[in-house]
């Protein structure tokens, strides 16, 4: 590793970071260096990839690992101790200089930094915190910083990380405790959740302090997030939805990210041979939005899954699957129904629902009025009533909507 130059290290450690999905930057405080002596960077402006600000703008991040060496041997991780991969390691100062160099070239607006565990959890966390401290204090960097933290590191190090970073995240790794014990026996679910609880209290205390005193230091203003691997163990979609809901409620997370398991070179024999369908990951994100923005309870989302397998359907989205299973809730009258009922109509999002509620104060809405607020009125017709529209039975009308998409068959499929 000592013989690698910076560019070679960057190629290895940027590629190693691609398995980490939890790098969105939504929710951070707005900062810039205008009028501030010695400052550099901001959390605002146009970006080119990968992360999004609260108003939807794209923010580019330098996304790397401090090192892909690790003393742990988690079966699902390509950087595990027994993995036959090329190793590299940055020093804290090299990451600082890379970040500043990329920022000055207008390539990035922030840093996402994670790491394998080297020597010990405390030593690795010290190096991660030093990167953030140096950027903030030595160079006046005011851009976005997201740090992946290590749950069994000293709590004082996690506290220091929160003083310098916009967002912190701790991965729960797998949806179930049994899966974690089987595939990552060196990690503890209780320890992970204990660290997440400590971060929650730190974030709440920081917000309270900044409300009371203007000069009070902030603590991870963009909150915390986590990530779980889908398809590496036997957890069903119903299990994953329940687990995500518990994490949101217990630790006030900004996001739970889902990462479809991908077979890795020299894989352990306890892992599945094939990756799950990528559509499964997509359906879980849709179910996540149902709970966060559409008012669905976890049990309602889980009810859209197959009763026998516990899996969400892949051919239709979970909101439509729920509507077809609970047809007695439809059709919904767009001129009378409350917001909660309108949000359950497949094809209607929060923005369209707010538009309907505003417009119906002035006139009774026809089908064409609803069509102006949505992308496809065909998906909505079976589930709503308008001034000039009333569907036939849901079973008949929804059949074309729920029909699976046509797929091209493989010529030489077995």
TrEMBL record:
Q: Which GO terms describe its molecular function?
A: catalytic activity; iron-sulfur cluster binding; metal ion binding
- The Elp3/MiaA/NifB-like radical SAM core domain is annotated at 60-287
Which cofactors are required for activity?
[4Fe-4S] cluster
Q: Which UniProt keywords apply?
A: Iron, Iron-sulfur, Metal-binding, S-adenosyl-L-methionine
From the record, give the transmembrane residue ranges.
none
Q: What is this protein called?
A: Putative DNA modification/repair radical SAM protein
Name the CDD domains on file.
Radical_SAM
Q: Which Pfam families match?
A: Radical_SAM (PF04055)
Keyword field contains Cell wall biogenesis/degradation: no
Q: Which PANTHER family match?
A: ENDONUCLEASE/EXONUCLEASE/PHOSPHATASE FAMILY DOMAIN-CONTAINING PROTEIN 1, TYPE II SECRETION SYSTEM PROTEIN K
């Amino acid at each position: 590793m000592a013989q690698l130059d910076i560019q070679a290290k960057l190629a290895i450690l940027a590629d190693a970071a691609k398995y980490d999905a939890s790098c969105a930057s939504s929710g951070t405080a707005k900062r810039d260096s205008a009028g501030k002596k010695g400052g550099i960077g901001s959390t605002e402006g146009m970006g080119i990839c990968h992360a999004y600000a609260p108003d939807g703008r794209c923010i580019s991040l330098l996304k790397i690992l401090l090192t892909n060496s690790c003393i742990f041997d988690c079966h699902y991780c390509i950087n595990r101790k027994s993995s036959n991969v090329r190793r590299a390691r940055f020093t804290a100062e090299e990451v600082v200089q890379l970040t500043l160099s990329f920022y000055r070239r207008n390539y990035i607006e922030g840093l996402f930094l994670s790491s394998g565990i080297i020597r010990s959890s405390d030593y690795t966390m010290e190096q991660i915190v030093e990167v953030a401290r140096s950027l903030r204090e030595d160079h006046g960097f005011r851009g976005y910083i997201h740090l992946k933290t290590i749950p069994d590191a000293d709590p004082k190090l996690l506290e220091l990380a929160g003083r310098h970073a916009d967002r912190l995240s701790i991965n729960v790794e797998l949806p179930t405790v049994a899966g974690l014990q089987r595939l990552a026996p060196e990690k503890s679910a209780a320890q992970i959740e204990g660290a997440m609880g400590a971060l929650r209290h730190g974030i709440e205390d920081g917000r309270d302090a900044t409300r009371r005193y203007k000069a009070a230091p902030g603590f991870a203003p963009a909150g915390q997030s986590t990530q779980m691997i889908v398809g590496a163990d036997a957890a069903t979609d119903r299990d994953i939805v329940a687990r995500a809901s518990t994490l949101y409620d217990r630790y006030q997370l900004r996001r739970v990210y889902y990462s479809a398991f991908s077979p890795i070179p020299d894989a352990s024999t306890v892992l599945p041979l094939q990756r799950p369908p990528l559509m499964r990951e997509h359906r879980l994100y849709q179910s996540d939005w149902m709970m966060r923005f559409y008012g669905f309870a976890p049990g309602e989302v889980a009810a859209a899954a197959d009763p026998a397998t516990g899996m969400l359907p892949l051919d239709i989205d979970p909101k439509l699957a729920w509507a077809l299973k609970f047809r007695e809730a439809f059709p919904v009258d767009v001129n009378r129904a409350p917001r909660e009922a309108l949000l359950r109509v497949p094809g209607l999002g929060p923005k369209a629902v707010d538009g309907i509620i505003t417009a119906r104060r002035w006139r009774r809405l026809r089908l064409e009025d609803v069509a102006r607020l949505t992308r496809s009125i065909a998906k909505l017709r079976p589930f709503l009533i308008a001034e000039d529209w009333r569907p036939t039975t849901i079973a008949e009308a929804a059949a074309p909507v729920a029909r699976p998409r046509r797929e091209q068959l493989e010529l030489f499929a077995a």
